[in-house]
Amino acid sequence: MAGMKQNIPEMPSTLSIGSVRNSGDASVIAVTKQGELINLYAMFRSAIIGLTLACSLGSAQADDSLVTLLTDHWKGGDHSVLEGGVGEFRFEGGNGAVYDGGDKVGEAIRDTEAFTVAFRFLTEDLEQKGPARIFSISKDTSHRNLTIGQEGERIEIRLRTTKTGRNGLPGFSSGAFLKKGQWTHLVLTRREGGKMVLFVDGKKETEKTVPGSLRDWDPRYSLILGDEASGGRPWKGSLRDLVVFPRAISDPEAMDLFRGRGISPGKETPLTSVSANNPNAVLFETRVATILTQHCLECHDSATAEGDLDLSRSLTSHTEDGVLVAGDPSASLLWESIEHDDMPHKRAPLSVAEKETLRQWIEGGAAWTIDFIDPALYSRPVAEIPSRVRRLTVTEYINTVRDVFGVDVAGEAKTILPAEVRADGFSNTAYNLNVDLKHVEGFAELAGIAVNKLDVGAFAKRFSNKRDHTDKTMISLIEAMTPAILRGPPVEEETALYRGISTAVASAGGDFDEAVGFVIEAMLQSPRFLYRLEKPVHGDRARRVSDFELASRLSYTIWGSAPDRELLKLADEGGLDREGELERQVARMLKDPEAVSQSLEFCSEWLNLDRLSFLQPNREHFPDWDPALAAHMKEETLRFFEAAVWEEERPLGELLNARFSFLNRDLATHYGIEAEIGEGELVKVELADVPGRGGLLTQGSLLTIGGDEASMVSRGLFVLNDLLRGVIKDPPPCVDTTPVPGSANQTRRDIAMERVANRSCGGCHAKFEPLAYGLEKFDGLGSYMSRDEHGNVLREDGEVLFPGEAAPVAFDSIEGLMDLLAESDRVKETITWKIVQFALGRPLNASDAAAVAQIHEEATQQGGRYRDVMAALATSRLILYAAPAPANDN
Amino acid sequence: MKTTPLSRRTLLRGLGGVAVGLPLMEEMLPSSLYAAKAAPEIPTRAFNVFFGLGIPAPVQPDDFSDVLEPLAPLKDQLLILRQVNQIRCDRSGMNAHFDGASGAFTATPPDGEARAGGASLDQLVKRAHYPKGTPEGIVPTLVSGTFFRRSRVGRYVHSYNPDGTVAATIQERPRDLFERVFGRVELSGDGDEREERLKRSVLDSVMEQYHLYTGANSPLGSASKERFKDHLDRIREYEQRSFAVKVDDPRAPALPPPSRLKHGGAADPGGEGIDITLEELTEAWRIMADLYALSIQMDRTRFGSLTFLAAGERIRLKGDYHYNGRLIHRFDDASQLKASGSKGCSHEWWHKFNEEKTNEQLRAHAHMKMREVAYFLQRLHEGEDCREANGKSILENTMITISTESGDGRHNDVKRELSGVFHAITGANGRFKTGQVLDANTEGLDLYNTMLSGMGVKEKLGPQDRRHENLDSIMA
Predict the structure, then answer these.
(1) What string of DSSP letters covers A486-512?
(2) Residue A256 touches chain B, beta carbons under 8 Å
(3) Is the peptide bond before B174 cis (omega within 30 degrees of 0)?
(4) Which of B476, B472, B440, B347 is CA-nearest to residue B107?
(5) How many Å apart are CA A121 and CA A133, to the nearest integer?
(6) Cα separation of A83 and A346, whole Å?
(7) pLDDT tens digits for range A787-829
(8) Under an 8 A CB cutoff, do B237 and A437 touch?
(9) CA-CA distance, A420 to A58, in Å (whole number)?
(10) Cβ separation of A388 and B152 shorter than 8 Å?
(11) How far apart are CA A115 and CA A39, in angstroms?
(12) Do B205 and A500 touch (CB under 8 A)?
C-alpha cells in the first residue's frame, strides 16, 4: 500500500529511538484471527535499518497495517496475503519475492559479522534440489552472501566468508528432517567468529563453524525468497514469520521464536524520554528545553523566578498571561522579548538558529511534555556528544595487564603514562581520553616491560601445547590468545599481521618464546587492547551488544578490568544470553575483590580525592599542618566508603550521615575528636557522640575543598554539583572571585549572605552558598571550632534549596543538614547518576534520563546499596545496548 | 614495466622521483672508512640465488634454449647442472616444497620447521675466508628477496649458520634492504640492533592495525575515527623519533620508494595465494635485485642470499609476458585453472605437470623466472661499475649458486620430486667451468662439497663420515 509511507511522521533520524512501544530489538507482535501470536518482522526494527521502515513502526501498531507493510516491501513472486491477515508467501516454483531494502540487511550483517534468520516453512516437494532457494541474499547462481535452501530432505546452507569465497562453497547441510506438507520452524544463527547453529522447532539441529569474515559480503545482492535472484533455482512451498537480526541469538531465544513469543532481552523501557510521535514535543525535548536551560533558567527557574516567571515548568510558563501562546509567537511574551534581544538580561542574546527553533516550537503548539526542566539533563544538547571509543585509563590499563597476564606494571605505568585529566567530574570521560606521543611511547615501552616480566612459554601453554613456528601452530595460537588478550574474536587481517611478526622473529633466528613474546608485545599496543572497541550501530536503533562486547562492558563496569576466563568462555558460547546467567555473573562479579577496588576508584574520582596529594595550606595560617594528614584524610574517606558500602552494606544515601569514620591519633587530634586511638593505622571510630561529625561532608577530604579560607562558594558548589546535580553557570566575566576573608565582626557566612542578598550575584549564589552554611564550623582544613579566628561565633543552622524546588528546607544543625541530604531523593539519585556516568565514561543527558531513572528505581527497591545500583546498571539498556551514533557521526 | 635497470647512478638521481640524491663524496672521506673498497685484490664472495617451484627435470633443456633462453646472454658466465638430486633432504612428514627449499645450498634435510639441517654454501665460504669476521663496513650476511608465502622460514631464507639457524634477518621491503645496507637504526634503548629491528616490525604491525581502523572501511564513527587518526599520527611520530634511520654512507643511493606490495603477515594471509600482475611482481623484484646488486658493487656485502618467490609460492599471476619482442604467454592462472583461492595459483601447474603434455603455463612461468634471475645476474656483469681489478666482472669473480626446490612438481613421488633439481653456478674467478650445460649425475651434497673445496674451504657439508665424491667435471 503506497499510502503507508506517507503516513509516517517525518522526524530527524536521530530521534526515532524513542517511544516505539517495543524498542531495541524486541519483536513486533501481531495477533492473528486464530489467536496465535505471530512474531512479525522484527526485522523492521533490528535488521532492516532503513529509516523509513524503522520509523514506521511507531505508527504501525494497528493489526492489519503490519501485513500491508509487509507486502508493501516485496516485489514479484507468487506471494500472497492469507485471509487471516498473516503475511505468507506461497511459492509454486515460479519466481521469487525480492525484498526492497536488502542492501541495508546486507550492510548491517557485514558489519556485525553475525546474524540470525528465522522463519516457518512448509515444503511441498521432498525431491527439490539445487538447493532450491528458500531464503537467499545473492546475485545469481554463482554469487551469494547467504543461501538457505532445500536439498531433498535436508536444509543446505551456503555462506560467503573470506574463506569460502563468492559462492559460499563449500556449504553445509542439516540432517534429513524435512517432512512434506508440515510447518517447521527454522532458525539459522551465526556468531561473530564463525560458529553457526541451525535450530529446528526451537531445538539445536546442526552446529558448524564456517571460518572467515563476512567483510566481503556484497550489500548490493538481493534478499529474495523462493528462488535465486537470477531465477533457475525455484522452491515450492510456503513461508511465514520471517525475522532477520544482525546479531546471533541464544538457545532460549531460538525457542522463543519457535513459540512465536518474540524475543525481548532486557527491559522494555525506551532509551529516551523523547516523544517520537509528536514532532513538536520532539523539538521541545531535544532543543527547546536546552535553549531555555542555557539562556533563561538562570533567572527564571522555580527558585529565582525573576518577575515571578518560572520557565522551568509548564504550569507557570503556559498559564501566565501571554507568556506562551500556543500557535502564535507574536502574541507570546517569550518570543517578543527574545526576538529583539530584550532578554536574556545582561547575557549574550540567542542565536538566529535558537530563535528560529523557539519560534517554530511556539508556532507548532508549544508542546510541554515533562514535569520540569532539570538543567542537569538539558544543559547540553541531546546529540552533542558523539559516542566515542574509550581508551583504557591508566588504572584500567594496569588492571587489564595484571588480570590478563598476571603481571604487575603498576609502578612503571604510573611513571611512564601521562596522568589522566578530569573532565565533567571524572578522569575517565571518553572525549577527554586523548592520545599523546607520551602515550604511544609509553604503551610501546610498557608492552616490552610486560612481556619481559611474563613467562611467555607458560602463558602460551594455556592456549596451545605445540611450540613451533609453522603457520598452523602459530595461527591457532594467535587465534586462541586473541579473545583472552583483545577481548574479542580473532580477525583475519589482524591474525595475519601477528603471524607476520612471528615469522619476522623466526627468520631472524628467534625461538618460539621470543616469537610469541613479540606477538604479545604487538597485541598490547593493538587498538583492540588499548581501546574498548565495539561494533558500530547502524541507523538510528540501539543495537544489542555482542556477547564479547557485553563481557567487556560488564567487567570494565564492575571491575575496571578485562573480562575473566569465565566471562570470555560464556561470551564465546553465547552463554550470557541464558536465562538468569547475566544476573548470576553480576552477582559473582560483585563478590570479587576487584569490584571493591573499582568502587573505591569511583569514590576517589567522584570526590576527586587525588586533590589531597596537592594540598599545600598556608604555613602562616596553619603552622601545625602535617602533610601526612592529607594522606590520612584520603584514606579515611576510602576506608569509610568501603566499610559503608561493602562491610555494612548501607544504602548509598547513608554515606552522607553514617556516624562513624576511620581515624588515627593524628587525624583525631586535628579534627579535635577525643578518642583512645593509637598512632599510625586508621581504625574505625564511632561518632555518635561527636558533635558535627558523621558522613562524607564532615570528613577532611571534602572539607578541604573550600581551601584555606573555607570558601562557602567552593563548598557550596561541590554540594550543588556533586550531590544535587545542580547546574550553575560560570560567574560573569570581570567578577573578582578571590575569596573574601572574614574579619573581626564578619564571619564568612555574613559575607556570603551579603553576596546572596546582592541583586547581581544572588540569583545564582542563593542556589549554592547556603548549602555550605551548615559547614561553617569547620575550618579550611576540617578542624571543628565554635568561633572563627577573629572570635566570631559560628552557626550551623541554614537552609537547603533542592534543584527544581521553589522553596528551601531549613535545618538547625550539622547533623540535621546531613540527615536532610542523606534522605533526599535528589542526593540518592545523584549518586546513582554519578555511578552511571563513571561506568559509561561520558556525561549523561536527557536521552539517558529514563534509563537512569529505571536503574535508580530498581536499585532503590533492592535496598539502594552500591551493589544494587551495579546490578541494575549491569542489566540495564545502557549496558545491554549500544546506542546509535548521532546523525552526523557515521 | 620498468625496463631501465637501477644503476647506482639512477638510484642517486632518486628513485621514482621520491628522494633527492646525495652527492658522491667518497673521495672526501678518509680512505680507512671504506678500506674494503680500496683494496686492490678481488674479495671472496658467495651468494645463493633461489627461485620458487623449480623447473621439472624433463623440462630442463640441454642448452640455453627454451626455458633457459633468458640465461643465454650470460652463458659464458654460467655452468648449468642437470641431474642433481637432493633426495637426502627429504624428511618424512614434511612438505616436499619445504624439504627441497631447505636443502637448496645446504644439501641437508631441515631440522624442525624453522632451522636448516646445516650451513649454507655462502656461510661456509665466509667462515673459511673471514675467520675473524668480515671487514668493518660490510654487512656480514645480506638476506633478501621478493616473496609472499611465509609459513616456514626455509621457504624463503637461504643463508644458514652451521647450526642451522638463519644467518641474518631477511629484508623483504626495498627500504628494509636499503636501511640494512646503508643505514643504521638509532638505538632508543639498551637493546641490540636485532631487537630494535624486531620491535620495529611490531610497530609496523601496530600501525597496520590502526590503518584498518582509520581507512575507508573503518567500522568506527567519525569521532572515534578521528581519535584513531590522532593515535596513528602519534605512532608515526614515535616511529620517526625512535627508529629514525641514519644513513652514514655518503655514497648511498636515495631512499627507495615505499613498497607497493604487502609485506609481513599481510603479504599472503593464510597462504591462500595472492593476485598480482606481472608488472607488479617484476617491478618489486627488480628494485630488490638492483639494491642487492648495488650493495655488492659498493662492496657493502660479500655473502648472503636472494630469493625470487618462495618455495611453493602461491600467486595468481596476470599479464602478457613478452620476451625479446615475442609474446611468450598471457598469464592468467586463476582463469586458466578455472579456480579461485589457492587452487587458482600458478603452483598448480607444477602439481599438474605431465611429461606427455606441453605444460605451456609451467614453462612460461619458468621462463619468466629465468628472465628475472638473469636480470639480477646482469646487474653484476654489465657496465663499468661491475668491472674489477682483474678485468673481469663481479659476476665472474664471485661464487653464485642458483637453485630451487624441486625437480618435479608432483607430490606423489618424493624421489622424483627431489631428483634433477636445477642448479647453475658461476665461475668464481676461474675456479669452475662455465659456458655449458652439464649432466652432473650427482648428489647435491657432492656438488656443494666440490664447490667448497674449489673455494679452498676445508669443511664439508653433510655427514662427516660420508665418503665424499669429488665432482671433477665442474672444475675449470
Answers:
(1) HSS---HHHHHHHHHHHHHHHHTT--H
(2) no
(3) no
(4) B440
(5) 12
(6) 68
(7) 888 888 888 888 888 877 778 889 999 999 999 999 999 999 9
(8) yes
(9) 43
(10) no
(11) 17
(12) yes
Residues 6+ apart with CB under 8 A from A276: A9, A11, A15, A16, A17, A18, A19, A20, A58, A282
pLDDT in tens, A534-574: 887 766 667 788 889 999 999 999 999 999 999 999 998 88
Taking phi first (over 0 means left), then psi (-120 to 50 degrees means alpha), and beta for anything else, what does residue B137 get?
A: left
Question: N- to C-terminal Cα distance for chain B?
Answer: 39
- CB-based contact, A384 to chain B, within 8 Å: no
pLDDT of A655 > 80? The answer is yes
Contact yes or no for B265 and A468 at CB 8 A:
no
CB contact at 8 A, A99 and A227: no
Query: How far apart are the CA of A396 and the nearest CA of chain B, in angstroms?
Result: 18
Q: Which of A60, A883, A223, A23 lies closest to A538 in space, CA to CA?
A: A883
Task: Read off φ and ψ for residue A223, nearest 5 degrees.
Answer: -95, 115
**Range ranked top by mean pLDDT from A301-315, A542-556, B354-368:** B354-368
Cβ of A444 and B169 within 8 Å?
no
> How many helices (H) and strands (E) would you count in chain A?
35, 24
The secondary structure of residue B210, as a DSSP letter, is H
Q: How far is A472 from chain B (nearest CA, A)?
A: 8
Are A497 and B165 inside 8 Å of each other by CB?
Answer: no
What's phi and psi for A324, nearest 5 deg? Answer: -130, 115
- The residue type found at B265 is G
* Surface of A (451-510) touching B: CB under 8 A: 468-471, 475, 492-510
Residue A36's DSSP bridge partners are none
Single-letter code of the amino acid located at A82? L
Is the peptide bond prior to A279 cis by the omega test (within 30 degrees of 0)?
Answer: no
Chain A residues closer than 8 Å to B217 by CB: 215
> What is the structure's pLDDT at B40?
56
Q: What is the DSSP string of A830-843?
A: HHHHHHHHHHHTS-
Residues of A in contact with B267 (CB under 8 A): 500
Which of A386, A441, A508 is facing B169, going by the closest CB pair? A508
Find the residue in A nearest to B189 (Cα): A445
Q: Which residues of A touch B170 (CB under 8 A)?
A: 507-508
Q: Is A439 on the interface with B (CB under 8 A)?
A: yes
Q: Is A111 on the interface with B (CB under 8 A)?
A: yes
With CB atoms and an 8 Å threshold, state whether B235 touches A440. yes
What is each CA distance from A629 to A633, A664, A667, A678, B425, in whole angstroms?
Answer: 6, 10, 6, 15, 83
CA–CA dist B381, B396 (Å, integer)? 7
The CA distance from A500 to A52, in Å, is 46
Residue of A nearest to B172 (CA): A504
Which helix (DSSP H) or strand (DSSP E) does residue B125 occupy?
helix B121-129
Report chain B residues whose CB lies below 8 A from the CB of A437.
234, 237-238, 241
Q: Do A522 and B270 touch (CB under 8 A)?
A: no
Q: When comparing pLDDT for B339 and B399, which is higher?
A: B399
Cell of B132: 675473524
Residue B112's CB is within 10 A of a number of other CB atoms, namely: 16
- C-alpha dihedral, A504 to A510 to A516 to A522, nearest 10°: -40
Q: Test B269 with A499 for CB contact under 8 angstroms.
A: yes
Predicted ipTM beyond 0.90: no
Dihedral angle over CA of A354, A358, A360, A366, nearest 10: 150
- The residue ranking higher by pLDDT, A546 or A461, is A461
pLDDT value for A771: 85
- Closest Cα in chain B to A440: B235
- At residue A32, does pLDDT exceed 50? no
